[in-house]
Amino acid sequence: MSDKVYAVSKVVGTSKKSIEAAIENAISTAAESIKNLDWFEVKETRGYIDNDKVAYYQVSLELGFRYEK
Amino acid sequence: MSDKVYAVSKVVGTSKKSIEAAIENAISTAAESIKNLDWFEVKETRGYIDNDKVAYYQVSLELGFRYEK
Amino acid sequence: MSDKVYAVSKVVGTSKKSIEAAIENAISTAAESIKNLDWFEVKETRGYIDNDKVAYYQVSLELGFRYEK
Amino acid sequence: MSDKVYAVSKVVGTSKKSIEAAIENAISTAAESIKNLDWFEVKETRGYIDNDKVAYYQVSLELGFRYEK
Amino acid sequence: MSDKVYAVSKVVGTSKKSIEAAIENAISTAAESIKNLDWFEVKETRGYIDNDKVAYYQVSLELGFRYEK
Amino acid sequence: MSDKVYAVSKVVGTSKKSIEAAIENAISTAAESIKNLDWFEVKETRGYIDNDKVAYYQVSLELGFRYEK
Amino acid sequence: MSDKVYAVSKVVGTSKKSIEAAIENAISTAAESIKNLDWFEVKETRGYIDNDKVAYYQVSLELGFRYEK
Amino acid sequence: MSDKVYAVSKVVGTSKKSIEAAIENAISTAAESIKNLDWFEVKETRGYIDNDKVAYYQVSLELGFRYEK
Amino acid sequence: MSDKVYAVSKVVGTSKKSIEAAIENAISTAAESIKNLDWFEVKETRGYIDNDKVAYYQVSLELGFRYEK
Amino acid sequence: MSDKVYAVSKVVGTSKKSIEAAIENAISTAAESIKNLDWFEVKETRGYIDNDKVAYYQVSLELGFRYEK
Amino acid sequence: MSDKVYAVSKVVGTSKKSIEAAIENAISTAAESIKNLDWFEVKETRGYIDNDKVAYYQVSLELGFRYEK
Amino acid sequence: MSDKVYAVSKVVGTSKKSIEAAIENAISTAAESIKNLDWFEVKETRGYIDNDKVAYYQVSLELGFRYEK
Fold first, then answer.
1. What is the pLDDT of residues I2-46, one digit of tens each?
2. In this complex, do K5 and I16 lie within 8 Å of one another by their Cβ atoms?
3. Strand, coil or helix: what is A1?
4. Interchain CB distance below 8 Å, K39 and E45
């Protein structure tokens, strides 16, 4: 596996439902334009509040993927 | 939207169930004394353990709200 | 000056014009409800973009003030 | 409760299902060799991606426990 | 103890004598206006110098307290 | 607004004049290749010195924009 | 001294009296099970409050010790 | 040199041999798709272990390059 | 340019007018005793408040300069 | 690979020769008492100086390994 | 007080007795070569262990002083 | 060894060859004007790129040395 090179992109996914759903939304949308997605790391977890409830979660991720040749 | 001013308060919500429930508990309790809650940011996620299981999650949030005039 | 106690509040000021104006807006609005404001520290500098220009700056500050007795 | 001493171990739990399940897996596995587990703190939340979906969550925790005499 | 909510306030205590005395001063002054103080965390330790000696310590704390209903 | 996904790019703008001008330069140049720019966050503020004056400011930004479908 | 290897353990000491006493308690308890303790580094200083006074200090340390062969 | 704008990309290079070789691999692979590479900054140095030896180094870099017009 | 060595000094500039003026003041004062100033990096932006307005900005910089032989 | 649990230990390796040799020394010494070492992450790189040369490098690592059942 | 410029030096004080004594030692030794010392900020608190007791505290400080003209 | 005081200077060494050579260059140049150099800590590892190869490494160090009396 050595000598491989990966790129890392930052994306922000949102979801009304849960932190995990925001992560999945970020990954599936990014996958439309990035191939070979390999790992993620959560960098920030935020959200917006409406009527004293969570309106939606907003999760920033770094996404790692094998470099396209 | 420019020239608005927001205040930020730090609160810690707890829940036996999930990280999301701890966030909702923090927001709904804070909303009893703070109006115009607008956003949150998770700062720390901790918890207590009882009998080798999560007893409860303890999530620290910064809560942003429009300044009361 | 020893044995004094200070409180620290976090506020977010906004301005269309500059980072300095966002700081002044945060301080003058906070001063309507907090007495004895003494110092500030910039924690984050962000902003929103509209039509490929800065729509407004959004500066998070910690504001220190002598504790009200 | 004073004069007690605690040790802190770092563990990484994984789960296909959720962040909370990864935390519970970490705690229950650590409990096989560590007694008196008392608290945890999430340090990093990562994961691996397979076929453009989360393959599993990978959550790093610090686990605090009373020092064994 | 689950489902409780805590607020966190930042205060700065000062003392000519010691770091511990600055912490106690911050807590006892804050206690005049905040009930149910529960924990603290030291965030910064600074001080001023006069005549090449410590004039006073200046310790920033986060103070946690149960949310007032 | 939920379920939207954003990408985040890091850029560095420079200006002889001011920090704000460096931010505007970064945004307007990035806008030539990125649509839907929505927000920015200042990450580092540096600069070069010539003849004991600021030669130019160099401001690193994260730029957020709606994911292009 | 080169080519030596050290291990680092994290412990939390507590004391009613002072930060230094909490550090000494952590070290003397850890020394019951760890040989060759060599250095420490304070990572966090917290504490609990009872009746508006410090109930006890709680100091997190990293403890370095020569690797047992 | 003022008023230039740079973009910053994050990449992860790997090498069996050394940290420097992992950096060179990251740069030469990134250079296949990015022109005008100008500087790098090491963000994390990790690696994988096989048979109690380093299997390969894994170095995360930020790569700066002049913005393509 | 390789094999050059630089030293880095930390200074704090102040100004009533702006963050940029505080940076220029720091550089021009440091230049009275340091030759070959080459770059700066802003580390903290603070200030003092008087009568609910910014009394002066206080900007901490790291200043890099070629090592004097 | 999901539902596996890993432990993380911190060690400090030293070497007169290079950063890479300090990492290898840390891993091979830790491997005498820890099985299944899987990954490492460099946390700090320091060293001691003797006669104005590096006497030895001192590299702090987190070592991850599969939890022993 | 505006338009003054301060320099910041990093020093490490040691003491067998306490953290406060290590700070005082650092300041009084630095004062032999630096005039106009004005403030300090604790950056790290470490120490060495001998016979399972603190041999001495080692406290890193930033020291601020008015720039010498 | 107690009650000694150390100063810490920040320097940046460069080298075409390796990270270790950049560290050695920083130390040997600093040693021309600083006596009693004792330890170093790597703070940042950067570099410049020319023709898609590392032109030179640029390593920032804190250098500790016994205070000159």
1. 579 999 999 999 999 999 999 999 999 999 999 999 999 999 999
2. no
3. coil
4. no
Average pLDDT of every residue of chain A: 95
Please tell me the distance from the alpha carbon of residue G62 to that of residue J24, in angstroms, as a whole number.
22
pLDDT band at residue I69, thresholds of 50, 70 and 90? low
Residue D69: the pLDDT is 60
* CATH class of the domain comprising F13-66: alpha beta
Distance separating alpha carbons of residues G4 and G68, to the nearest angstrom: 11
Residue B1 pLDDT exceeds 50: no
Residues from chain A contacting residue F69 (CB–CB below 8 Å)? 32
With CA atoms as reference, the chain K residue closest to G20 would be K18
Chain I residues with CB inside 8 Å of L9's CB? 7
Nearest CA in chain K to L9: K10
Angle at H23 between CA H18 and CA H29, to 5 degrees: 125
Tokens of C64: 């220190």
| Domain limits, chain I | 6-66
- Strand bridging mode J5-15 / I37-50: unpaired
Q: What is the pLDDT of residue A1?
A: 45
Q: Three-state secondary structure along chain C?
A: CCCCEEEEEEEEEEECCCHHHHHHHHHHHHCCCCCCEEEEEEEEEEEEEECCEEEEEEEEEEEEEECCC
CB A56, CB A18: distance < 8 Å: no
Half-sphere exposure of residue J44: CA atoms within 13 angstroms, side-chain side: 12
Q: What value does the mean pLDDT of chain F take?
A: 94
Closest CA to J15 of J6, J24, J4, J7: J24
Taking CB atoms and an 8 Å cutoff, what residues of chain A touch D45? 41-42
Contacts of E6 in chain B (CB under 8 A): 11-12
Instruction: Provide the β-strand partners of residue J45.
Output: J59
Return the structure tokens found at K6: 């301060």
Can you give the pLDDT at residue E2? Answer: 52
pLDDT at A3: 77
J45 interface with L at CB cutoff 8 Å: yes
In whole angstroms, what is the distance from residue F52 CA to residue K8 CA?
A: 19
pLDDT digits (tens, 9 = 90+) for L6-40: 999 999 999 999 999 999 999 999 999 999 999 99
Mean pLDDT, all residues of chain E:
95
Q: How far is G52 from chain J (nearest CA, A)?
A: 38
Cα(H21)–Cα(H14) distance, rounded to whole angstroms? 8
Quick check: do E and J touch, 3+ CB pairs under 8 A?
Answer: no
Look at residues D4, D49, D53, D11 and name the one whose alpha carbon lies nearest to residue D30. D11
**The CATH homologous superfamily of the domain defined by K6-66:** Flavin-binding protein dodecin (3.30.1660.10)
Q: Which positions of chain G have pLDDT values less than 50?
A: 1
Spans in chain C with pLDDT lower than 70: 1-2, 68-69
CA distance B50 to chain D (A): 7
Contact yes or no, F with H (3+ CB pairs under 8 Å): yes
Q: What is the CA radius of gyration of chain J?
A: 14
In this predicted structure, the answer to whether residue H2 has a pLDDT above a threshold of 60 is no
- At H1, the pLDDT band (50, 70, 90 cuts) reads very low
Instruction: Report the first-to-last Cα separation within chain K, whole angstroms.
Output: 16
Q: Is E23 helix (H, G, I), strand (E, B) or coil?
A: helix
ipTM of the complex: 0.96
- SS3 category, B26: helix
User: Looking at chain F, which subunits does it touch, using at least 3 CB pairs closer than 8 Å as the criterion?
Assistant: A, C, H, I
